[in-house]
Each structure stands twice: as C-alpha cells, then as structure tokens.
Amino acid sequence: MSRRKQIYEGKAKILYEGPEPGTLVQYFKDDATAFNAQKKATLDGKGVLNNRISEFVMLRLAEIGIPTHFIRRLNMREQLIKKVEIIPLEVICRNIAAGTMAKRLGMKEGEKLPRSIVEFCLKRDDLGDPLIAEEHIYAFGWAAQSEIDEIIAMTLRINDFLQGMFAGVGIRLVDFKIEFGRLPHPDGMGGHMVILADEISPDSCRLWDMETDKKLDKDRFRRDLGEVTEAYTEVATRLGILKPNPTAGATLSVGSSND
Ligand code: C5P
Predict the structure, then answer these.
(1) Assigned domain for 258 exists
(2) Coarse DSSP helix, strand, coil percentages of the chain, rounded to the nearest 5 percent
(3) Mean per-residue pLDDT for 152-170?
(4) Residue 257: band (very low, low, confident or very high) from pLDDT cuts 50, 70, 90
(5) How far does the centroid of ligand 1 lie from the alpha carbon of residue 120, in Å?
(6) Together in a domain, 200 and 238
(7) In angstroms, what is the span from residue 170 Cα to ligand 1's centroid?
(8) Whose CA is nearest to atom 15 of ligand 1?
(9) N-terminal to C-terminal alpha carbon distance within the chain
C-alpha cells in the first residue's frame, strides 16, 4: 500500500491512486465510527467483509443496468474503482422508520412507511451531514436538477432490487445510504453521467432479520449491541458470499493466493 499515492482517507476507507488513469484503489479499513466519529473502534475483519459484500451488491446492481464505479476486487481489502467526481450528497432511502428519521418525526422504530422515501444530506463531516431540501441542492449548485432526477430514479430502482435480494435471504432492508459521482460521458461529447460510487454494506444499510428483527448492521456498533462482525458475517453467509462453517461460524469461501 505504501508504494501507492494516497488520495484520501475517510473514516472506514482509504483511496489510493489506481494503476491506470481514471482508476483508484478503494481500501476497506477495520475502523468503525459513529455519531460523526465521536465513537470509534476497530472491528477485526469488518473491512474484509464490507469489501466482499459491497463487491457482491455492486455486481448485482450492474447486472440490472445500474452504472457503478466498481471495476473488480483486487484482494481481501481492496477493489479497483473508476475515479469519479463525488457529488457532495448522501442519498438516503427509507422503507421503515428508524434512526434519525424516527427521532426527528417522533415515529416508533419499525413502523412501515406509506411509501419509500428518499432524503438528501449534505456531505459535510464538520456540520454532521445535515439534512437538506432539494431546493438547497439547486440554489447552491451541488447538483443539477437533471442529475437529481436521475439519482432519485436510480435510488428507487436500487431500493426495489435490494429489497427483493435481501428478502430472498430473510433480511428486511430498512434503509440505506448511497453516494453518486460524475464521470465524463463515454460518448465523448463533453457531458457527464452519474454513476453509483462509494460502497453498499452493513455499514451503510439497516438490515433486520425478517423473523426476529435482529439487527445485522452497524446499529450493533452504534447501540453497543455487540457481535458486530458476527452480524456482518451472517449477512455475507446468507448472500452466499461466505460458506457456512458449522463449527466455527462462516469462513471466507474462496480466494486466490494473493488475497
Ligand atoms: O442515521 P440515519 O437514520 O439517518 O441513517 C439512515 C441510513 O443511512 C442508515 O442505514 C445508516 O447506516 C446510513 N448512513 C450512513 N452514513 C451516514 C449516515 C447514515 O451510511 N453518514
């Protein structure tokens, strides 16, 4: 890793210069933070699990025609991605009341929403990623209206697909956060296209077991529920990424020697 130039270090990931122009290497750390980094820990193996789960999800989304930044997984903790200009928004999609929305609107966690809701937060750690209205996005030029139209349509398609994918393995998709980036359009006419970036993993989704409502996501860390990596392992196993190991929990199923 040290041989490569570091471009950016976030709370859970590091970006390095990629081997070819227009690419980056995304490295998944074991670090976990919550409440805007007021709470911190290192969770052994979390980065490996998120790398594998995010790879799996991005590949499934590409199969249904969602353009993503994912190119290929390089090893246990790294993936090669397309270099994009990140749109400074956290796009949240919710199916069931939980977290900050339940708190803000005085709702009981677990209440089914009348329909899926898309929210926008400004990506600004120093401000705690505040919730914003679409009006702010256009007035301050964070994204164009055509980009937001595309982002909302893509987010709802991603939500539909992921709800089905997780329901198939007995998991309820309560909510999730995604990010998008701009890439020069491949038609070479000077325009840009919007593609899915960042990651989709139990760090960025709320995932509840359908039978028991057991939390299988980062809320286990946020709320001190324990067994965080065990829960992420459970998600990976149910999705078929890891092979179940009856004696010692799941293990990483395959992996080339340079993993
Ligand atoms: O905390 P809140 O209820 O707003 O989170 C909604 C969803 O977005 C959750 O799945 C949470 O994990 C995710 N999220 C995230 N990164 C943030 C804020 C929220 O991945 N900075």
Answers:
(1) no
(2) 30, 35, 40
(3) 98
(4) very low
(5) 11
(6) no
(7) 21
(8) 204
(9) 14
The pLDDT value recorded for residue 89 is: 98
- The confidence band for 246, taking pLDDT boundaries of 50, 70 and 90, is confident
Question: Which residue's CA lies nearest to atom 4 of ligand 1?
Answer: 100
Assess whether 42 and 62 both reside in one domain.
yes
pLDDT attached to residue 245? 78
Task: Work out which ligand 1 atom sits closest to the CA atom of 205.
Answer: 10
Is there a single domain that holds both residue 105 and residue 161? yes
- Residue range of the domain that includes 42: 6-84+228-252
Please check whether residues 120 and 168 belong to one and the same domain: yes
- SS3 state of residue 193: strand
Q: What is the 3-state secondary structure (H, E, C) of 86-126?
A: ECCEEEEEEEECCHHHHHHHCCCCCCEEEEEEEEEEECCHH
Distance, CA of 252 to CA of 49 (rounded, Å): 9
Spatial distance between the Cα atoms of 234 and 169, rounded to a whole number of angstroms? 10
Region 93-114: mean pLDDT is 98
pLDDT level of residue 254 (50, 70, 90 thresholds)? very low
Cα of 215 to ligand 1 centre, how many Å?
14
Q: Residue range 43-63: average pLDDT?
A: 98
- What's 195's domain CATH number? 3.30.470.20
In this prediction, residue 236 carries a pLDDT of 98
The per-residue pLDDT for 249 is 59
| Judgement on whether residues 204 and 232 belong to the same structural domain of the protein | no
Are 28 and 13 spatial neighbours (Cβ–Cβ below 8 Å)? yes
pTM over 0.85: yes
Q: How far apart are CA 254 and CA 259, in angstroms?
A: 9
